[in-house]
Design brief:
It contains seven helices and eight strands. By secondary structure, it is an alpha+beta fold.
Length: about 230
Amino acid sequence: MDVRAVLTDVAGLGPFFAIGTGTAEAGERAVADLHADPQPLRERIAHVRGALGTDRRVAASLAFQGLAAHLVSAPYAAAVLHGPVPALTPADLYWHRGADGGWVWRTDASGLADAAALPGLLDGLLAPLVAAVRAQVPVSERLLWGNAASALAAAKRLVAAQRPAAAARAAEVARDLLGGGALAGTGELLPPRGRDHTWTFRRRSCCLYYRVPGGGLCDDCVLSSVARRPR
């Protein structure tokens, strides 16, 4: 399979897995630009802040989580379902603002990398974004990497739900990713519950969603585990 075929297949798993292919069009910006030009990221955080009625720190956390979900989900699903992964880099992954204010993604990467390259590929996409967010808003690096880990665990759940034959492979790939690099130590693997197969992820940090008006605790939040402890 080629990059287009792989990304077309995984896009069917849901919107966070969708990355289009083809040459960048007018108005699209490379992810690499976010590291040199802070304005688009500042605007994205402001959009989330206004939509949720929250403060900049919470907005920065949740904006990052949404972006991280897009950066993680498609390469991860490709590794699970196909083995080779699109060789994405910040220079050949593009975005433009959609009608709903969210970002729409495209790549002109033409090569596939071995699944063993996935940890480095994800670090290469996520680490500069972590730094770019923290350059604008004083939010914990540990919290942001916890958000990325949470996004990965959610992708694992979605892949397993929609492609049950790949559930064991999905758990294996996600476990390996969560055990190394910047994602190591972001959470723990517990016995499966709810919609999870093989294991359930519980993070060691909080994305701060509970501070959004009308918000609450996410299922994988460290604060949820504290709340469930017997008194």
